[in-house]
Write a structure and sequence with these properties.
This protein is of the alpha+beta class. It contains twelve helices and twelve strands. Strands 1-2-5-8-7-6 form a six-stranded antiparallel β-barrel. Helix 6 packs parallel to helix 8 and helix 7 packs antiparallel against helix 8. The longest helix is centred in the C-terminal third of the chain and has 27 residues.
Length: 396
């Protein structure tokens, strides 16, 4: 039997919305082009003007058949009613940023007792600045809320003795300034007036000691800054790099004396790192990968930041933040693995000696025209040949 006849379930992954999993029995996507059609009275000529792509609409049917089907369907219903768009892991079309237009949960008590069904309609939500445009719209709402609460609880530079209170405020302003500069760089000429106003407010906190001494002001500056950055960078690859650079600004730990000073400085460093990690995670989920190793590298980079932050939370006895970080990392790991392992795997072929790219492409893919694929991932020597071990994508 040909391997091409055995595709049942080959590219199906577990479905979820905003991190809430469900068993999907039917899924479709609707799209096309928008256009103005002209049909003229008493004439044979017609006209058509292309107005762009239609917004994509996703219809899914879910079934819950476990003993806790009522609570499971209720969790999905709550996720669909929650504000803002989020990531839909479509069982066959990959991960997409969508908003739930409607959900209908049904319980046929007599005919199908013990199970619930849900009919859902989602619409793509890329108009707000790309796939990862809403910074806190997917699996991050709990982490963001807990991180904010921990920061506001612990950030009190005024309670620290001089000169350490000054050091805490300097650290907060340095982080806010990094976010402010990045925010201004990413705001486009056509950005809203509100974005510019928010950017000015962020800069005020970065330069006003009195504002930076207040936890609410610092939190608002960091949160709004990261949100504006995510909304205005439409390329997930660029967004990932920017968020990673911002995360690197706060990699160190506080060296201040134990007490209010150290607690306050650790609080602002943690808040900054958590926001950057969330931004990295959502940019990683937004990206379209060509190879499985690329997806896994992005996943590892995000998990490294989350793991370091979880260790810091554990060391500081912040159990709530520690648990939320673990929960977030677990869900992100699952979603990225679902995405990654639908991609072509990498292979390494040992040709025992240097080999020309055309020869290698023909040997691996039975198609010499694919030599460009290999040249992008292997170093070519002065003679135009690869090293004996050639890395490529599995031909399936």
């Amino acid at each position: 039997m040909s391997r091409h006849n055995c595709a049942i379930g080959k590219d199906v992954v577990p479905a979820s919305f905003k991190g809430v999993p469900f068993y999907c029995t039917e899924a479709d996507v609707e799209g096309g082009r928008r256009g103005a059609e002209g049909e003229f009275p008493f004439g044979e000529d017609t006209a058509y003007a292309d107005l762009g792509r239609k917004i994509r609409v996703y219809h899914l049917t879910a079934f819950f058949r476990e003993d806790d089907h009522v609570s499971d369907s209720g969790a999905l219903f709550a996720a669909c009613e929650s504000p803002g768009p989020g990531i839909l892991v479509h069982p066959t079309r990959g991960s997409v940023m969508v908003a739930c237009r409607s959900i209908k949960v049904s319980d046929k008590i007599e005919d199908e007792a013990g199970q619930s069904s849900a009919e859902m309609e989602f619409v793509e939500a890329n108009s707000i600045g790309g796939f990862a445009g809403v910074l806190f719209g997917i699996i991050s709402s709990g982490l963001n809320t807990t991180s904010r609460a921990s920061f506001l609880r612990d950030y009190h530079p005024g309670q620290a003795s001089q000169p350490w209170s000054r050091d805490v405020i300097d650290t907060a302003q340095r982080l806010v300034d990094a976010v402010a500069r990045t925010t201004v760089q990413t705001i486009s000429a056509t950005a809203s007036v509100q974005d510019w106003r928010d950017a000015l407010k962020i800069q005020e906190v970065a330069h006003d000691d009195g504002l930076a001494a207040n936890g609410v002001n610092v939190d608002s500056a960091l949160y709004n800054g990261f949100q504006i950055i995510a909304q205005n960078i439409t390329d997930p690859v660029t967004e990932f790099k920017v968020m990673r650079q911002l995360a690197n600004v706060a990699t160190h730990s506080s060296a201040l004396p134990a007490g209010a000073a150290m607690e306050s400085e650790e609080a602002v460093l943690s808040r900054h790192r958590v926001l950057a990690a969330i931004g990295m995670a959502e940019a990683a989920m937004a990206r379209t990968y060509a190879y499985v190793d690329e997806a896994l590298q992005s996943m590892d980079a995000v998990l490294a930041v989350l793991e370091d932050e979880a260790k810091a939370a554990y060391a500081n006895c912040d159990n709530g933040l520690f648990l939320e970080l673990r929960k977030y990392a677990t869900e992100f790991n699952r979603m990225m693995n679902d995405l990654a392992y639908r991609l072509p795997p990498m292979i390494a072929v040992n040709f025992m000696s240097g080999v020309h790219s055309l020869v290698a492409a023909y040997a691996i893919y039975n198609d010499a025209k694919r030599h460009r694929d290999l040249e992008a991932r292997n170093r070519i020597d002065a003679n135009g040949r690869f090293s004996p071990i050639v890395v490529g994508v599995s031909p399936g």
